[in-house]
Recover the amino acids of this structure.
């Protein structure tokens, strides 16, 4: 008997800040009845091949994806990129640059924490990450282990909260650049958990102009009013309503795997956006003077 819903378009593995190896993540999702899953590790497609192989064995269609966290005046703008190619070398160059920036940022945060009297070692943080894209979740776990915060989750509200003393801004993409990067590499961009954006109404038309194709509508922490707001934005801007658990396997963040209902028509609608970009590119090529 399945305990989850069949579609989950937002999950994380140990290739970024999730707690499980890609294979184990897919196994757990399959056991809950998931049949279509996006592995959307932050700034990396490193888990895609392994997840796809596990999915083939277990009857889960894995969509290679990433989640790009951005830096700007607009609060937490995270862009999901669907249907990306793990063998795209130019995309990998950009993602590597983002991951290197993540590493430097966490190093700086470790230095600040040590100076503030909350000793943590970079070695421990790296050991927790097991080679995945470094992020504050790894730091949160190290802080909890060292007894500097009462719980893993509370670290995000105290020591390493945005704007807190030990916080360091990321150097990375702006929201518009993140959308453009996904589009330029043949992917389909969707705005993750839109209510972490500050100034959503003003930012939306800009994201849409940059090529945004979806909006994460079905999300664990969305009450019906927020879902309705997302559906209205999807209609207004001709976006595909997407959704997923944002499962990490750490702390209280996100829903259980397959824990969010996502309508089945979402998948063909997203696939059509992929086709639309390809068709637009071909029209340009045919219409060009070469
Ligand atoms: P970073 O990208 O390093 O700034 O870390 C942000 C990531 O931390 C998000 O993508 C989430 O995965 C995670 N996160 C943010 N807030 C929380 C929270 N309150 N509890 C647990 N995880 C969180
Ligand atoms: Zn994360
Ligand atoms: Fe996110
Ligand atoms: Fe996420």
């Amino acid at each position: 008997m399945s305990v989850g819903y069949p579609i989950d378009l937002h999950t994380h593995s140990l290739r970024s800040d999730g707690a499980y190896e890609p294979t184990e993540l897919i196994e757990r999702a399959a056991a809950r009845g998931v049949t279509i899953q996006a592995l959307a590790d932050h700034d990396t497609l490193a888990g895609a091949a392994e997840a796809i192989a596990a999915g083939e064995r277990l009857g889960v269609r894995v969509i290679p994806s990433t989640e790009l966290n951005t830096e700007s005046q607009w609060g937490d703008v995270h862009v999901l990129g669907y249907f990306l190619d793990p063998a795209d070398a130019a995309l990998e160059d950009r993602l590597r640059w983002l991951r290197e920036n993540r590493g430097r940022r966490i190093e700086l945060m470790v230095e600040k924490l040590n100076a503030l009297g909350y000793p943590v070692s970079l070695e421990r943080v790296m050991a927790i990450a097991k080679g995945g894209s470094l992020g504050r979740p790894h730091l949160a776990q190290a802080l909890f282990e060292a007894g500097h915060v009462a719980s893993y989750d509370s670290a995000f509200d105290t020591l390493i909260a945005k704007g807190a003393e030990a916080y360091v801004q990321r150097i990375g993409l702006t929201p518009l650049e993140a959308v453009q990067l996904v589009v330029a590499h043949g992917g389909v961009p969707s705005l993750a958990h839109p209510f972490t954006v500050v100034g959503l109404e003003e930012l939306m038309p800009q994201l849409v102009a940059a090529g945004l194709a979806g909006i994460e509508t079905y999300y664990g922490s969305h009450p019906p009013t927020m879902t309705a707001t997302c559906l209205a934005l999807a209609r207004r801007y001709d976006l595909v309503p997407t959704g997923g658990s944002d499962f990490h396997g750490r702390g209280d963040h996100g829903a259980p795997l397959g824990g969010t209902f996502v309508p089945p028509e979402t998948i063909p609608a997203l696939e059509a956006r992929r086709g639309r970009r390809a068709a637009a590119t071909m029209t340009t090529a045919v219409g060009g003077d070469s």
User: Anything to note?
Assistant: Residues 17, 69, 135-137, 153, 156, 248, 251, 253 surround adenosine monophosphate (ligand 1) (CB under 6 Å).
